[in-house]
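Dear Dr. V.,

Thank you for agreeing to look over these. As mentioned in my earlier message, I'm a first-year student in the group and I'm still getting used to reading structure tokens, so any feedback on how I've presented them would be very welcome. I ran two proteins. I've put each sequence directly above its structure. The first is here:
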Amino acid sequence: MSMENFMKILQHCKCKRSDAIYNTIKIVNAKIVDTQSMNVVSGEIIISNGIIKRVGKKIDKKAEKTIDARGMYLIPGFIDAHVHIESSLLTPTEFSKAVLKHGTTTVIADSHEICNILGIKGLELFLNESENLPLEFYFVVPSCVPATDLGTSGATVTAEEIKKMMKNKRIVGLGEVMDFPAVIKRNKRIMEKINAAGKKVVNGHAPGLRGKLMNKYYDAGIMDDHESLEYSEMVEKAEYGVMLFLREGSAEVSGKEQYRIIDAYPDHICFCSDDKSVVDIDRYGSILFNVNKAIALGYDPLITIRCATHSCAGYYGLDDIGNIKQGLKANFFLSKSLKKIKPNIVFVNGIEVYPKGHVSNRGKFTYPAYAKSTVKHEPINKKDIAIPTKHLGNIIVAKDGSLHTGWKKLKITEEYDVKKGILKIIVIERYRKNGNISTGQITGFGIKNGAIGSTVAHDCHNIIVVGTSDDEIVKVANELIRNGGGLAIYSRTTGLGLLKLPIAGIMTQDDYKKVGKILEDLKKKAKAIGCKMREPFGTLSFMALEVIPELKITDKGLVDVKNFRIL
């Protein structure tokens, strides 16, 4: 972001004189982390108009303001290599407030979720809202809208639209290419989208893909991956030249074994958060969590910081960030320790955005009416959600902390067996395109009485509900329809709980702290009715994701993911 844009923002702020924004700042007595040479050097820096002008042991130049770092480490701002802002349930303005204080100063955002609902207009809205925010937003254009033809989305994004968007300087690539069977077959439609990226980055999404099929997928021009299931898979991909993103989301995490890749291929690693709730961002940070987890596991702090900064900046061709060097943007933070990093002061473009929060008083972005009226299905009743006989006994096995599901096959005739943990799950097409309602069975959630539901359901974001009875499932589904989207829970013992998400049915513009409190309350209610999932709504949202094995459900029915077919 330019200094000119920052000055425009100041018109919206009421800053005390002592909190003024300075053109020149000098930081002294700092331990400067150099992510290129992998050294820590005691010294000083001079910032002028948002740019690092000098770095040295002792700088004989005065500034309008001098900050004594008192021996703290001066660390380049973290970069999130792949994130869906929408998964925080926040729009860009509140999202920026949540992540900045944890040292993330730049994100590469894939607006895949809002574009599945609103089409390319969703990306344009995000570009407009984020333009003058302190957090630096870069975007990739979603490649798979919809992800496949196995579900019904609200919109499509074409190769021509992708090619047009690539002209924008804040577009740095093509979003994760999830339809790997289409890529392997060299489907004309998907190849046109990959080619539309030109020389920019093409993000990958290839869970479990190995051997010749993996090679063919990446030979199509795809360049990275954040979905590897095992360490050996990561090694195979790294040896083939693939950049790997170590992911720490809310419902999806990387295990201790996967972190070994940092030592094995340190130059092939970036960090990403992918899908992270506002609660986890506020509590642990976004990329800060990845970094501190790696350090706690015993990995070199300097190598770890490099993965979160210099490596990611270089990968995306962002030559003006990622290190503390003359001529780069003054995006950094101060931390007392490298053993457990905790940002004390955060700067973006030479302006102290935390804890002073100079630009936090900016008014709300105005979303158009079409972005607030996306849940269009009529209320349902119990007769709408009977499970087809052919589907009985094909049970989705949900797993805590994983997007991957199992597939259990039983000979049963009942829709529910709550004692054995077998519940009903439904998906309702919400765009009024075909009115589909699909039903199936699922185990793993552990709910004993009640239902939970959401209009956040990757990737088509139709209505999804799981519960122990038709009455409770219908109650939750109709509450979501009535409120135009959100997260909901109901049981006779806890009553109704609701987080309204009026923006595209997946986001709210409310204060991120308020949103976090409501979400925490919903999670407590879910636990009270027996739900075993640490992230009940996050895990539920991925039960409709038809590109991650093994058995999923969309509005078109149960999906055999390995064979890419509806049962």
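The second protein is here, in the same arrangement:
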Amino acid sequence: MARRVSFFAELPVLVVACTALCGATGPELPTRREIQSTLLGNPGVVFVYGAADPALAERYRHALTEMVDSYFGEDEKVHVVSEAVLGDEERRASTLYVIGTPAQCALARTLGPEIGVAFEEGAFRFAGRRYADARDTITVLRPSPFNSRRGAILYTGNSDETILRAPFGVLASEDYSVRRAGRVVRSGLFSQEPATRWAYDPARDRDLEAEREAWARSLRTLQAGTYRLHVPPGLATDERLQDAFAKRTVARRAAFANVGLAVPEPADAFLYPTLESKAKPSDDPRYASLVDGALHSVFDARFDPRDVAIEVEAALSPKLPRWLRIGLSVRASGRFEGWSLDEWSTFLDWAGMRVDPVELSNDDTFRHRSYWFSYPSAALFVRDFAALLRGEPPRPRPIFEGAELDPPPVPFMRGACIAHTYSLDHGYVSRIAGDTMRRLHDDDHVDWFSITPFGYMAAKDRPEIRPGFRDRSGEGLTEENDEAVWAAIDSAHAAGAKALLAPHLWVRGAWCGDVAMKSDADWRAFFEDYRALTLHYAMLARVRGADAFAIGKELVGTTRVRPDDWRALIADVRRVFPGPITYESNWGEEFETLPFWDALDFAGLNEYRPLATTVDASDDELRAAARAVADGIERVAKRIGKPIVLTEVGFPSHRRGAIEPWKDSADKTPAPEIQARAFRALFDALDGRPWLGGLYIWKVFTNPTTNENRPTGYPIAGKPAETAIRDFFAHPSPSR
């Protein structure tokens, strides 16, 4: 049931605000939510490219076709069309994504002025500012001028080459975004007030350039080792700074010497107290990154001054293959993600996760392999090959310590599925997310949070899985990138709770339970990709301190036909993650017949069985249905001998919430009392069941005040259901 948002995977949700009839404003226009709901309706989305220069047109066609194939698969509702053949009916009926410079694309020239983008020679103007850098682009979303009930998206700029380097103008929670060389310099939302709907709203405009300039003026400059540190006032008095950068100076000099390069000194480092504070001015979601040769890094208890690989890599020749640059830089640094190369060597050998040289040398394979394994493997290959050339004997590889530890017992889980709000200011990395978890822990007795990153499939029968971690490229500023997941785990712990990491698959145009391959070769390819995805997050869970791990969710079409592949995956995960693991089964047949419950520590169940057949069901009827549900779970629990954890359980707060708990859009009439009554009925039925190992409420957003918390949806914040959950979780042990 977990929902996933990615612009290319699910256009209507990442584009939280697709706005405005071009050039017109007012109450007769549809609201943002109304436009959003139409984005992937029939006949779908048309990606339109310009036709002025045939050679450029062919490059656009190729880039867009490749994207559609990768992200949308064979979805018949998504098309790539030259503006030269775009028909009037298709233009009126479809969501339009118009891409290209005004010189290349006549439709861009038409849409731009109506949207408020004025074109000049080599520049464009928007809302009072001129953008003349060749690297400047702008993306604007509004209702279409050809049909105000459909959306139109314009992605244009000053250079076709710039657009083609990143040919998709992705938006997160904003309605428009101006970027320079891919970095956001301005963004905002249009008005949604009835009289001025879709008009430019200065109060909702963010000038990120001005914000960064103000932030830069607030910094203090200190000298530590050979580094010039630029730090906010709150960090300027941190006593750890001098010692940390004295150590980093030594490590940096040694690392550069290891690759035969002169070390550039002095060096600049910009430090931030939190990931959220770093991501805003640097426009980069990673814990550490380089901008114009300067280090930008979070400085907290986990800052490792000896890990200088990022600085070494930047100094190496870009002509080297990427895997070799990374191998040389990590080997020169001698550390990766807090572990020494010797520690990585013994762990990778014991776990069987060392990536072989053939895979390392394949750039495409290397980019899609988890960096947890490929980066240290590349460094170890470089180190071992260099030793071989020097005639040195192979290094001894001691047994990995802790290999035989059993996972700890699982305490009762009073859980909530914490859903990422797709915004830097409101998502996993934000202070707001930490505040939300702390409030749920303190007020509602929630002591576990389920955190869900994603992999993407273009179609249910295509084996390729795009990993969400993006090869550490810095993409996905507002998504569940690895640093965001890491921040969510930290926030759970800071709130006094524990974290269950539960990666999930988002499948274009289908439920993940419908995944099924067409051939044995496709099945092998699917499980190869799924294994890589799962082990990446299992390793993240290990290193970042998650307390439990789920190997999958609701993959009904795979578990019943490929149990041996799942058992092999479980064995692999056991070698990587030392804590308790589960699988989140779908309610019904999959839960009742899953063939590998014996290999897991507890049985996960995503429970959405109906408790009613009519909208006016009485409390007695709800309780009777809930008892039948609990009795059915109990029969499975007795057979498999495992604790049962309801890893998802929820009821939408509309009139049919107890009839179709799996469907949050089944009714448009808010009925929060039905949601509360359904929860109370289920809690009554579960209370005292000795097999119950806990449950996770579906769902709570990282920011409960955003528009995602619809009055008819699953979120419980401020609804009567929250009181019911609080009462149940207040028990010392509800399954006593």
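From my reading of the second output: The chain is about 40% helix and 20% strand. The longest helix spans residues 520-544. Does that match how you would interpret it?

Kind regards,
E.
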